[in-house]
Write a structure and sequence with these properties.
Length: 109
């Protein structure tokens, strides 16, 4: 099943913040990060339901899932998303940076 990808406003803000920070340090690094991000998003189009639910899903009462991707420097980022299988949509809610705490309710509002 091919899902349509929807990037939530907060995830878009995360994306811009990360790219701004990276591009101030290295345009090449920012481009490599965006390529890794795009590869992760492309994977979600066909395989979103194959990724496990996050442990926080039960506490937050929402079926959160995540896909991880690493930069060439070995830093791991996480796309946190939900799947609406009935509408064939994957909604990316947040992009988590290395070292960020686990996602909570305030991260989703």
């Amino acid at each position: 099943m091919a899902f349509r990808i929807d990037i939530a406003e907060q995830a878009d803000e995360d994306l811009n913040e990360i790219l701004d920070w990276l591009s101030r340090r290295s345009e090449q690094g920012a481009a490599a990060w965006f390529e890794a991000f795009s590869t992760a998003v492309d994977f979600l189009r066909d395989h979103a339901l194959s990724l496990p639910k996050l442990p926080q899903s039960r506490r937050l009462e929402i079926e959160l899932r995540a896909i991880s991707f690493a930069t060439t420097q070995g830093l791991t980022y996480h796309l946190v998303f939900v799947v609406d299988a009935g509408a064939s949509i994957v909604r990316v809610l947040r992009i988590r940076k290395p070292g960020q705490r686990s996602i909570g309710r305030t991260d989703l509002s």
